[in-house]
């Protein structure tokens, strides 16, 4: 029975129980599913060359043995198999391969295999998220067939691109624009076209990247005015319902002197956002759309891993997508400073509320990754949510790990990448560090603090604007995702601050160590700026 | 009467009868709120149709009365439809319901005052009686209330479906019925339908739909149709019709032929019709039974039979056969897999299938999500229902594939006292994916019966197991092992069989050093090793505290030795520990080295002792002709005897000191018996054992009072009983000499008689160890040829004659003859009469 048939033939409580019933799990039941599926994954891995590489001759016989024997892994540990797509080395045949950026790697992309069982789980979990996005309480959802969906996520082979294909077999949804058309155009054109169609015929569901949603929503708000000609052009092709909504909304806005907001035009049943900066945009998106977006957690390697619930207040991880381990923040930092140090991991039922953790996953159901460090940091919000009746921990996405700068969920910039760009640019930069910051519109950007070579300051053009422009060119050249970022969000994701010569040396003398190249602590940056302005003593 | 008039009578009549029939049927059902709501609704329908019918017929008390009844019925239909749906959906909150009832009572009361519809006007057109109604504008109020009431009914149904209290499938006949009713009623608006009794027709149809909805919900069964009340109604209807149709004919017939008895006409007719009514009732009842309950009765009978059969059965396999037959007979088109719980293996395993020649390699672990779900559910369910639960999430892909390959459609758990005793998997059948409600009831009943029987069978098996097994090692115990090898030996009687005895070396020391728990662990480990190496090749048992026995039918000594050597490679102490524990193995094979089971035990035990005395940790094969084949170059028994010589001398000296007449007796017996053993011939080890047993055979006399030993007259019965205890006394003393304990079986048997009248154990024939038989001859011969306090010495010839006379009674005939020959030809040198 497809999802659509279930909606017709089964009671709402049956549908809810099937897809969202995991929210009723006790901590014990949750761990039982985790442990059982991990044992399956161990068995699958132990039968394939990849598993033999991880386990050695003796596969682990228990979860404790698995955690103690198998080392924490990164993509480099799988690169020789996965980049060459050696399917015979995998625990289960790959039905499809998904791609993502390889931050800090020597190759531009990472590939991750998806088995049939993983895809089935992905599908079930995304449908659960869809139900939850339309729900106002436990079991109270509103999903209808033939709903119009504005879909503003990266296309295949990115993980988000699978959604329309998977959902098509389960439910009849009208994607805006239709999937076939969307594949022929660029991501930005797809979003624009989707909005136009939404304006004409309305929309019921919205799936998109938070940053894109935010940008597009602001455009809608700011573009509400315009000439009569523009208005007439917009009115052509509109359904009577949308026409009525638009006209009445324009009237109200004129009368009240307010901007036209999406909520004046659309009555969304469900609103789903993904992306690393979702938390930054959610309040404003809610204000603009009249419905709080439901955030999803996931990625190419872990697939669709977690969702918020009807209260949109914390992520719940699906128990059947990955086996989750967590590295506490202090352990993670210790390991970043000393790569030989092996950080301790904790399980879902061993966490502490309000603590940040780096996520470690073992992809279940024939996935390739075991004890894999995704590079994401989550905060454990609470161990149980009594108001929602959830008995296992809920999380919020914090950011990438400190060595990676993620800009609006599009690109992940590492020390290696910046060094490469600086190298390519031939700019006379002697020393630098970079961190992620947010502008007044809550857009994240890369802030590069650079110190020029003393002898170059006179000889070369070393103004801030010139350097920023120059580096921007090379970032766009080196990183395709960076290019998309500029195109889609219309913002410059790079800010450069030129530090007086010798600032970093003074800092080193003051603190006895170099400042971290990527994402140094904020207070250290402030100290450094004080040093550059007033001298070392002001910070001590 | 025109056709139209007839229709207005026949259709309401059929509808009334249909409703009345359903009403009576439901009266015999087990009543709950839903059934009561249905009965109320039927009563309203009957009022509607019956009122309409009787109004047409202008029955007493008149059209007006029946008109009021009919209109009241029509007015009350919406609220009772709502009430029925409210109950059917198990809805909560009674405010709206109470409000609606109150409103409709008011409206009905107002209608009785003709506020909404005026009295019908009766007129005739072309001889056809017509009824015309006129309504007031106020009719809009009941109309609006009716729409609101039905809207609320719809809302209640939708909520019920949404909240999972009722399924759409269950609700469907109900919705169709109500729709049909209102479409039929609405048709009256169109002139073309005005002249037809649509409303009363659809009223009857609706009742049937509602009845079906209740049947689907298993609230009533078809057997209720065959209740007494419905049979009475039908027979009353038939008889009345017959009476109406035949009354004038009967009256005419009576007047013509029985005119003389005119004064009895009423009684005769009444009695005649009463008899007819009884006959019709019986015929109707039988027909109804045949129609509706025969199948049910047949099922009940089968179920009863099944229940009786399974309750008598305690063995698992016959029980499962009974169940399999039951399923094959009752569900011939379904394939069912029977799964039983194997508690020790923590699994449920398919052991049988209703389709022969089906692969049964399927099992579910105790922790399988489906098992947990079934225990929570407690009743049968479709597999698809499970596939939509969260428990399904934790299923392995392989587990899902397995159940998919099995094509499981329906699962019947066999639960008793919250324990899942077994499972029956029914496969999907094309076009018949769903069981009927009756079949499900039937299956559940059979499942409940079987679950109790299964539980009993498991308990019985467990008790049997307990009685047969050694609790610590899980191996068979000595008693069951002895039973088993009798059977196995009977099978291998004309072939080869080998007995392997294993005995821990210095086990007491190990226990003292590391504790009894460690000793037990070593025993358990050895048991596991044995299971792993021997497997199904033979029967394994823990024979005594530190002793294990393995019987290997159709297996020779060499194979047994190989197995033993493999076994030796497996450690019994914890790995990486410095603990050292060994065991010796003795092997004896039938028929090469032993003639029967007892000899197998004796010789295998001797081989074990041989291994122990030869340095321990040995595998020794018993051989009668040659020296015992051992895996080591061991020292001989003689050497052992030499090492124990001082002990043996001390003991024999002690006896001699106590009983001077037996001076040198032990020496003589030892000499005679060993000579005899050599001549049999027994192997050197065995001969040495007999020699040592000869020296020690009377050691028990140390415990006999000197007054009895040296009594010159005949012993009293009491004294004789005391004297007899010396044989067991010998055993009690030698067992404290661990290095000599192997001589016990031989030493204590020297007073056993061939005819079984000896002591201490009363053994007979070849069951008496051969060493014991040798000692018996030697002991008797020396006793006869020696002078004692109570007698003089006999001559050698007289002694031999005495032996000859007692061959077959006291002595082994063949050994006795051999002994006589050995004495006669001088092989045995007689030392008799040497006592002082």
Describe the model.
- The complex is a heterodimer of chains A (540) and B (836).
- Chain A is of the alpha/beta class and 540 residues long.
- Chain A folds into three domains: 11-92 and 321-403, no CATH class; 119-289; 405-539, GMP Synthetase, Chain A, domain 3 (2-Layer Sandwich).
- Chain A is 42% helix and 21% strand.
- Chain A contains 22 helices and 19 strands.
- A seven-stranded mixed sheet of chain A has the order 4-3-5-6-7-8-9, sandwiched between helices. In chain A, strands 11-10-12-13-14 form a five-stranded antiparallel sheet.
- The longest helix of chain A has 20 residues, at 27-46.
- Chain A starts with a helix and ends in a 6-residue tail after the last helix.
- Residues 536-540 of chain A have low confidence and may be disordered.
- Chain B is of the alpha+beta class.
- In chain B, helix 20 links the parallel strand 12 (583-590) and strand 13 (619-621).
- Chain B has four domains: 3-220, Rhopdopsin 7-helix transmembrane proteins (Up-down Bundle), CATH 1.20.1070; 313-467, GAF domain (Beta-Lactamase); 469-630, Reverse transcriptase/Diguanylate cyclase domain (Alpha-Beta Plaits), CATH 3.30.70; 640-824, Orthogonal Bundle (Hypothetical protein af1432), CATH 1.10.3210.
- In chain B, 39% of the residues are buried.
- Chain B has a six-stranded antiparallel sheet. A six-stranded mixed sheet of chain B has the order 10-11-9-12-13-14, sandwiched between helices.
